[in-house]
Amino acid sequence: xxxVTFKDFQGNSKTIEVENGLSVMEGAIQNDIxxxxxxxxxxxxxxxxxxYVKDEWFNKLSKAEDAEVDMxxxxxxxxxxxxxxxxxxxxxxxxxxxxxxxxxxx
Length: 106
Fold this sequence. Notes:
The chain is α+β, with helices and mostly antiparallel strands. The chain has helices at residues 24-30, 55-58, 66-73, and strands at 2-7, 13-18, 50-53, 82-84, 97-100. It has 3 helices and 5 strands, in the order E-E-H-E-H-H-E-E. A 5-stranded mixed sheet has the order 2-1-5-3-4. Strand 1 (2-7) and strand 2 (13-18) form a beta hairpin. The termini are far apart.
């Protein structure tokens, strides 16, 4: 299990444990994290699981594929540290990962 901390746009946070091999989005859905809608269920067909990855973690993630980058462009207020949480797969090296949900999902 790997710890992931979710912060909302107001600064409230919740730390959960996610099974390795699952996505950050799956962990959020299983733990009722508000701010992650996941309308497409992780098929990378929407941007409703958009998160901002804390800077020190961003470069530890695998690089976003072009399709993910295209979806992020449609997200609410994308930033340089934006990712789709359905594309971040949990592993031991991500223990302590911190992400922030945007004010709303598009």
